[in-house]
Write the structure tokens for this entry.
Amino acid sequence: MSWWDIVAIQPMTNILIVLSHFLFNNSGLAIIAITIAVNLIILPLTMKQIKSSKAMQDIQPKLLELQKKYAKDKQKFAQEQMKLYKEAGMSPAGCLLPMLIQMPIWFALYQSVIKMLAATPEQFLDLGRYLYSWSQVFSVLPLSNQFLWFDLSIPDAYLILPILTGATMWVQQKMSTMPSPDPKQQSQSQMMLWMMPLMFTFFSLQFASGLALYWVVSSIIRIAIQYFVAGWGGLLPQKTPGQAVVKKTT
Amino acid sequence: MIFVTTFAGKVFAYDTEKAIQQWSYPEKGTLGSIVGGVFYYNGKVFFGTNDGKVYALNAAATGQLSPAAAWSSPFATREKIWSTPTASGETLFIGSFDKNMYAINISDGTEKWHFQTEGAIINTPIIKDGVVYFGSFDRYFYAVNAQTGQLVWKSQEPAGKWFWANPVLVGSTIYAPNIDGKIYTFDISNGNMTTMDISASPISSSPVLIGSQLIVAAENGKVWSIDTTKNSFKMLIDYQKKVYAPLSARQNIIYAITVDNNIHALNTESGLDLWGPVALGN
């Protein structure tokens, strides 16, 4: 096993299996529980990331002004940009760093869910290599893959989970995307708003439903966090920052 | 006849002369995936499926499209079945992922008894002198009375991991491979356990016995020979490819299938790689 397997995948897989043991031998509940637990652990980072993103969006009009003002002097623009960041109490890495820290945790969780839902003999043998010598781990296996109306180890035949995956991801993306005064950036945001949910809907149609369940629960949690930190954001109609407000006079 | 099961959930029968298909079951459509093999016994074919059912067919169905079922309905367990059944007298024995070893009346497919462990059972049990011997995913090895389903003995200590591959009986000793890479031996009279630390790699391929030599393939492709008279072991060959499938043997030659779908033949006396790899079809 690689160091990544030992440090991340193995502990998370065993925790998932033990959680199933305590949650009525239900792997669906275990996936929901660990997704919530992981989100709670990284909540400070997530909040920091959302706040940073919001602050970044708030200073967009000022940034655009600086861009225009110092279009011919890049050095001066960089100085002014840093000054603006400092005044707003943020660093450019503020958005990225929490995300970078969270990424390995999400990858580990994703890989552990796949491991836990072993269905074929080869997958089971692979899972066997990752098990700790805990009695609960051995007594609960094999896990029941049935949860609600679907089998967690195969794609949802009723297409409900893939649709939910795409819908919740779209809502979450929409909430975190604010209109940008920069048309190029605005167009990129619009593309991402649709591309990511469509991509994950497609994945949900191909992969085990357990993963789709994990994506749906993750998105719902992030929608809730996003709402409490920054409100409905881009989900409600917004004025484009920097857009002139024309007062109608009669 | 030769019987072939598929993961797609179908059983085929071929004649041994020209390998012409005699029948398939079911004639149309498929059953649940079949992971274990078929067991032929007294003119009937028995097998379990991934949807937890045990089927019995009348094998002599030459000239027909599909054989008749021997039972009015398949025997149902609560979880998937990856085990190959075996029989003794009028009783069929098969393990299930629902953690039970089942004894089924061959005549009508009704349950005689079931014995519950704490883990899935996927290996084929050994039946000897009225006792059923098998390992479980709960890491224990069991001896159960074949008539009553009462526990005779259970290993005192758990193994490192799952008992996956089929155990082999040599004299009064059972050799049971484990996913932890060890071979556990049990005295059939009292369950006294010893351990042979063969490999760091899991052993999921069922071993074969040639004379007093037990041939074991580890997942990493290393094939070992255990001299059961001394319980000493030596490596015969390293295929350097994963081996999951059970070994088979004829006289002193073993046949191993590696994960890249190639078959190899090895002379266990000389340790010579006779031929292979020969690619199998998909």
